[in-house]
Amino acid sequence: MNILCAGINHHLATVDVREKFAVATHELTEALARIREIDCLAGAVIVSTCNRVEFYAASVCPIRAIEGLRSYLAERTGGTEAPLYMHDSPRSVRHLFRVVSGLDSMVIGETEILGQIKQAYAAATECGATNRHLNKLFQNAFHVAKQVRSETQITRGSTSVGSVAVDLAEKIFGGLAGRKVMLLGAGDTSERTARSLVSRGVRTVIVANRTFDRAARLADEIGGLAVHFEHWHTAFEEVDILICSTAAPHPIVTVEKIGPLLRHRDGRPLFIIDLAVPRDVEAAVNDLENVYLYDIDSIEQIVRQSLEVRKAEVVRCEQMIDRHVRSFVSWMRTHVEHFS
Amino acid sequence: MDSNLLIGATFCFLLSLGCTLPVLRSGRFRPGSANLVAMVGGFLLLSVSLSQRGHVEGSCPINSLFDVLVFMSWSIVLIYLLIGPPYHLSLMGAFTSPLVLLILGFAQLAPLDRAATARVLRDPWIELHVSLSLIAYGAFALAGIAGLMYLVQNRQLKHRKGGALLFSLPPITELGVANARLLWLGFGLLTVGFAAGFINGMPVNTLKFWTSAAIWGLYGGMLVLRRTHNLSPRRTAALSVAVFVLLLCTLPVIQHLSTPK
Hints:
heterodimer, A: Rossmann fold, 6-stranded parallel β-sheet, 11 helices, B: mainly alpha, 9 helices, globular
């Protein structure tokens, strides 16, 4: 028995090509049934995410099965020319283990892919499209992903501005439940950051924008309050996290302006995230007691740091995966299944 | 005091430190792991050791500087085990074990009189006074450690560099709260301990009295200023480290002046 993998991913094709291969959830049952009709094919699993479309299959005759898969894909995409990859075991096994561990993802070490592959496998088993070898392969893959995540630092740190902001806020305040956030300026990144914070328990979001209508609209969308830009400092006393992203040409949050306001905060920390360029917050604000100021450069430096740590861990992950590939391949050799 | 038990306890604290530091450096610290187990082991060995010494001396084993240092190490670990889990500060063990090792190491290596000494005047109030004061010192030691962790975390956050230590240490707000609560705990115990000393009515050496009063006043003053928001959490943290170092320096003097001549 051989494990086959055919597919296309973000490394090889742009989204306009990938979308032609995508298999929507409602098409899955039919697509699996069609693939199972391919000669010499004993089972199949289809993984279709925004970054990849992959077909995993078990077959005793890989050459005929690959040809069958090729003609199915050509028929499905209307003959679209695409840089497809076709692997048989052990390369296909290694490929799945790398994908499920997040090593093949756009952001190395991301964990969303594990859930997506679990869903794909569950859908295939529900349709009765898997066989013993594919079941064993995917169970092993989930075990490998878990081991890689727990025994290496491949998932360490945050890799987006929003998640770094949340991590830092938690290192300042502990839990974020009941905390208050103020958005000074309603840019896209600040909105996403605010949404990340809300998803972790932040209670109130106050939006102050030069265009009040935009502030009101955003406040309405994320369940917050809008205040007039000129009056932002009146709501400042209760705020724990300040996110700035105005288009002002000079700093609007200065030591002179917030120094006196800090005296009324009873020593509560203030976390300022300055996403604006040019910066909205005077650098000296970071020297104030209980104030932690992060500008876009310092947040991106933490993102880069996390990515570097993850990249450095890839070698260890690959070694771990190699051991599991060898073990799976030797299991396959001792469990030969004759296709009927 | 059975030296094997003390060596065993010292080894446990060394193990706690040895287990935690490499894991901390790699950025994969998980609270409540090896360091906690080693700390519990060290605590049990110290408890047995103190119990044996108490039977020999016929009183709470706090009759010499050697006794006091061992009892204080035990107090520090006791307070750590009591406050650690509720505040999720298991990492505090990584900071606590070096201090305990320093005190225990000094007790064992310095040329101190280690012979068991029976107390000349046996009075339960004096025993309560000394033991509560030493447990209060344990709380102040932990407050100093929480303060040190606060200062490290504050530096990490202010420097904006990220890194493993930033994400391994507890949130700075929790460290500030733990620091203040440990100071209150220590201050409360010290106050009760002093009151027990006064009830006895024994004559007190003037230098010992004023040294002890100064320490009590320093901690009390810090807490009042903190309570009225006139002392920031960072300054409270820095002061709790500084005052504890001062307290450690005065300990031999106080012990010397307390020994009945």
